[in-house]
Amino acid sequence: MSTDKKADIAVVGLAVMGQNLILNMNDHGFKVVAYNRTTSKVDEFLNTSAKGTNIVGAHSIQEMVDQLERPRKIMLMVKAGSVVDKFIDSIIPYLDKGDIIIDGGNSNYTDTERRVHALEKKGIYYIGAGVSGGEEGARFGPSLMPGGAHAAWPYVKDIFQAIAAKTPNGDACCEWVGNGGAGHFVKMVHNGIEYGDMQIISEAYQFMKEHLALSNDDLSATFKAWNKTELNSYLIEITANIFAFKDKDGNYVIDQILDTAGQKGTGKWTGINALELGVPLTLIAESVFARCISAQKSLRVEASESYPHKIAKANTKDHDNILNDLNKALLFAKITSYAQGYMLMQEASTIHNWSLNYGDIALMWREGCIIRSVFLEHIKKAFDANPKLTNLLLDGYFKALIIEALPSARRIAAKSIELGLPMPALTSAVSFFDGFSTKRLPANLLQAQRDYFGAHTYERLDRPRGEFFHTDWIGSNSNVSSSSYNV
């Protein structure tokens, strides 16, 4: 291959995601420089997967930068955190004003915000790009969520939109998200919703396995059937495949896996940000806590011996009705999870002045990413029809689905509590919905209690919002109040 032309972009980090993105870029006609701190990995990559391509290697940062067209574009595919900062510090001395650094890892959006502003002062553009889709997505078309220095977007747009996944209509699942850390924030929420989807699916699995006593083949067939309904999605599809998969000895792999779930932090960040912004992201938070409790395996085993209970089996004649309820309960919880995720993005967009395009975000998630589903097409339509839509639950399409699915969700949630089967995400979805759709909540009592013991004041139904009052509950003849409360 000719090496006369300078490269379009460099990728730092040759783990599987980095290698696959490079190969994807090469497939779409872009010349890429591959670099890794351990330079032997560069040679290994060039002599194996990249052999015979237009991909070139670099054994030093200087060599990498020298091979790039201006403005130079360097994409970091390295571990989030201090490693990113170290690479940025090592690259900056070789760059000129107008050059671009892109972070394609799962960085915390606050780190991205900091880096955007710090590099801006040096004349360097910085992009924080959420990348979703795993190894397969990186190789054949990921969902890309770029944000940061908007002036850099025209220089990377063609590359990103070329390598991104495409919708059935041919639209690229990549569009500019917003300034600062907007791209990584949206990726964080994507991962939070992913936590929720995986948890509600897992809860349905346990319900079917223990209460309905379904075999792995039955479970696989059920999820395959569900994938032809409104639940059609990547996660439902792979779940059906997982239940059918056997090892070389003919044993179902699912039954060999220890019931402790790991996590890398993005779900936790989603919950933390929800608390900081005052957004009730209950389903996603419960999904994170469910992973935490799963990790306490030895303690759970000990507790099960102290509190033994047997899960009652359902009558087989009721199976079809129960499975129909489970299908609708999953849909109900899924809608609730997305509604909560969008609530968080809407609040963050207001706080940070990001002006997020919620229809475009749904489009970015339509293909290529882990939460891809037909469901997202309806979210895009909802926000395209009404960009000022305050909540997905108030959209006509989703309202109709919720009304139809709610009785099923209530029956499954109630049955799970009766049986002693943990379904924290599903039951939290029902509780959230009931709170969300209740005109008057008991928070008046909460505020009275706060005013009683701490003189925190309250507002009144018969007075305009913003006026605060304090009652002398104990006859102290004091008019002193602590502070007004925040809502």
Largest sheet: 8 strands, mixed
Number of helices: 19
Instruction: Estimate the mean pLDDT confidence.
Output: 94
Count of domain modules: 3
Q: Spell out the helices and strands N to C.
A: EHEHEHEHEHEHEHEHHHHHHHHHHHH
| Uncertain segments | none
Question: How many whole angstroms does the radius of gyration measure?
Answer: 26 Å
The counted number of beta strands is 8
Span of the ends, CA to CA: 63 Å
The CATH architecture name of the largest domain reads Orthogonal Bundle
What is the CATH homology-level superfamily of the largest domain? Answer: N-(1-d-carboxylethyl)-l-norvaline Dehydrogenase, domain 2
Shape: globular
In spatial order, strands of the major sheet run 3-2-1-4-5-6-7-8
Roughly what fraction of the amino acids lie in strands? 5-15%
What is the top-level CATH class of the largest domain?
Answer: Mainly Alpha
Query: In which range does the helix fraction lie?
Result: 40-55%
Structural class: alpha/beta
Could you please describe the fold and organization of this structure?
With 487 residues, this protein is an alpha/beta fold. It folds into 3 domains: 9-180, NAD(P)-binding Rossmann-like Domain (Rossmann fold, 3-Layer(aba) Sandwich); 188-436, N-(1-d-carboxylethyl)-l-norvaline Dehydrogenase, domain 2 (Orthogonal Bundle); 442-487, Single alpha-helices involved in coiled-coils or other helix-helix interfaces, CATH 1.20.5. It has helices spanning 16-27, 40-47, 61-66, 82-91, 109-120, 134-140, 153-163, 182-210, 216-226, 234-244, 266-277, 282-294, 297-306, 319-352, 358-364, 375-385, 396-419, 424-436, 443-454; strands at 9-12, 32-35, 56-58, 73-76, 100-103, 125-132, 143-148, 178-179. Strands 3-2-1-4-5-6-7-8 form an 8-stranded mixed beta sheet, sandwiched between helices. Helix 1 (16-27) links the parallel strand 1 and strand 2. Helix 8 (182-210) crosses helix 11 and helix 11 (266-277) crosses helix 12 (282-294). The radius of gyration is 26 Å and the shape is globular. It starts with 8 loop residues before the first strand and ends in a 33-residue tail after the last helix.
